[in-house]
Amino acid sequence: MIADGSGEDEEKWLAAGAAAFKQNAFYMQRAIDSNNLKDALKYSAQMLSELRTSKLSPHKYYDLYMRAFDELRKLEIFFMEETRRGCSVIELYELVQHAGNILPRLYLLCTAGSVYIKTKEAPAKEILKDLVEMCRGIQHPLRGLFLRSYLAQISRDKLPDIGSEYEGDADTVTDAVEFVLLNFTEMNKLWVRMQHQGPAREKEKREKERSELRDLVGKNLHVLSQLEGVDLDMYRDTVLPRVLEQIVNCRDEIAQYYLMDCIIQVFPDEYHLQTLDVLLGACPQLQPSVDIMTVLSRLMERLSSYAALNTEVLPYFLQVEAFSKLNNAIGKVIEAQEDMPILSAVTLYSSLLKFTLHVHPDRLDYADQVLGSCIKQLSGKGKIHDTRATKELVTLLSAPLEKYNDVVIALKLTNYPLVMEYLDSENKRVMATVIIRSIMKNKTVIATAEKVEALLELIKGLINDLDEPQGLEVDEDDFEEEQNSVARLIHMLYSDDPEEMFKIINVLKNHLLTGGPKRLKFTIPPLVVSALKLIRRLPEEGDNPFGKEASVSATKIFQFLNQIIEALPSAPSSPDLAFRLYLQCAEAANKCDEEPIAYEFFTQAYILYEEEISDSKAQVTALQLIIGTLQRMHVFGVENRDTLTHKATGYSAKLLKKPDQCRAVYACSHLFWLEDHETIQDGERVLRCLKRALKIANSAQQMTSAARGSTGSVTLFIEILNKYLYFFEKGIPQITVESVESMIQLIKNEESLTSDQSAESFLASTLRFMEFQKQKGGVVGDRYEQVKV
Predict the structure, then answer these.
(1) Which residue stretches of 498-594 are H helix?
(2) How does pLDDT run across 730-780, given as a tens digit for each residue?
(3) 753-783 as b/e, with b when 16 or more CB fall inside 10 Å?
(4) Partners of 493 in the beta sheet?
(5) Which of 360, 353, 361 lies closest to 397, judged by CA?
(6) DSSP 8-state secondary structure symbol assigned to residue 331
(7) pTM for the predicted model, two decimal places
């Protein structure tokens, strides 16, 4: 059967066969043109003898077969014309059987049989039965397959189907079905036999050739599906059992896989639904090497699509217990195939879950049952390390999220977190990211501490690194992206009930603090923000009958904040972050009139400044934050405020660079004069700060002159002048007209002013501002009128 020659030899054999074929076809056509039946049969038999070759591969043989098919169509037309001219079709049917070789004889017999059926001189079923039995004479797999394919092709439009012109009292659709089934059975036997001919070393080649020929066998099933008379009853009682019997009995991996897939693809979905138990019952009987995973997955996909397009059939799915039958069948298949890979088992349950979610979206118990069955198959196998299997497991776990667009529903599936346990650390992170993206995309609000606890268990791959193997390196960009997604998630965890919200942030704290120092700088800030938002929602303690003894109070939340921020300085590159959070909390305590708490937060911020913040630029920024925050504080008494402002001014004077010292010191002047608070209005100390800043500016200029041989910039003096003007406008008695005029004169006398274009422009802008204020009039304008520039 298998061609032993090379590709070049095959081409030569095909060319030689085609040449002989063409020559005999020419003579046959000439005989047809001259109405010479005897010669037409002679040359057609010689032409068809070329199909007796065993030297060609299936692909090349098909080329020759198609030439023969085209010529036989012409011969069939000639036969039909001969009968019209008075030739007996019965004699013609007998005459073609005189051909010397059996293969040409059977091709001619099928052609004459086609004409015989058309004349209706005998029941179609008798002729079809005779043809299908006669074709048993060819047992060579390749030649037999093509012969029977020809028989199927020419008889296709002559089957006694319902509504067909060949249907009658003696011919019924049952006869048509019997003919097609018999031809299918014989073709499948020939097809399977190809696998066992030839040397073992050519097994792959044979399998490839069989794959090329599979459509010849499958077309029989397609013909059956197109018969009008094959209704559900006939399909259930006759067609399906006979086809499955042949599939199971052939015991061939390739044939079983292809033909099971054919059944699923060619017959209506309604038939599959009503015969599920029969179809699924054959699955465990297939060879262990058959890819039953793909077959069942396609069946479930077909049924899911059927339900989606025809919602009125959904009750039938419950009626026939489709889910239970599929679930049991999958279990039996896995049990029958002891060596089934994990990938196949997971894929089957993934397909079943998708089927369940599409067909029975309201039955969460079904979805949970699928997950439970999956766990049963995975139990005892530990973490899954097969890349494709873990990817499929992620697909399975993602299915409920994609269907419901609501993580809360997934949280109701008790087996969901148990399935996630079979993922390794990397894929747990992947799955956690999928869950968080679903929450973000659908803006899902998770409003109870219990659900938050369940959610955090699901995404612990992102928030906890205690179980990660040693040496596992995670890309820094990926890690940051993952942690930023966790930070965004924290803002989505919200409850309108303050007590429940306090429980939520406590649950978050318990999980996030175990996440390791690298994660804290991402996860603690949003948690702090959530807690501060909760404080703003609380009633005033005077309005709360329980006061500080209430289950949720500002005091308790501030204590909570202190605990979580304390964890930050231990994290790398996080002291600056903790410093900022302490100041934010201090400002929140200020709004709640909690002086001791606000003072404690400031104290912690000062400790971090002294012990952890050593970079000069970071110190400048930190001081600006301290001064800005302290300026807004009104809760402190005189003693506490003096302590804190004294510390701030002390830090200012200790900065490394003189210009930084100067700016920090004049910024401290704002700490001693707040318009809205008469108790914080100390003009003397404001003036003292400004004079001290001026002294530092002088010192900075002298140092620049000594080091570089040129006087330093006058910009600092102009900045101090602007501070003088600010407090002059506020009406501070200590900032007099003379002090302002003195500053202006000092700046104008500086030699470096004319050489520094930016400083000159800065001064010009300041003087224009003063002139504008004069023209503006009013109380402030009157003050500026006194200043002589």
Answers:
(1) 498-512, 517-537, 554-566, 575-591
(2) 889 999 999 999 999 988 888 677 677 888 899 999 999 999 998 888 888
(3) beebeebeebbeebeeebeebbeeeeeeeeb
(4) 446
(5) 353
(6) H
(7) 0.78
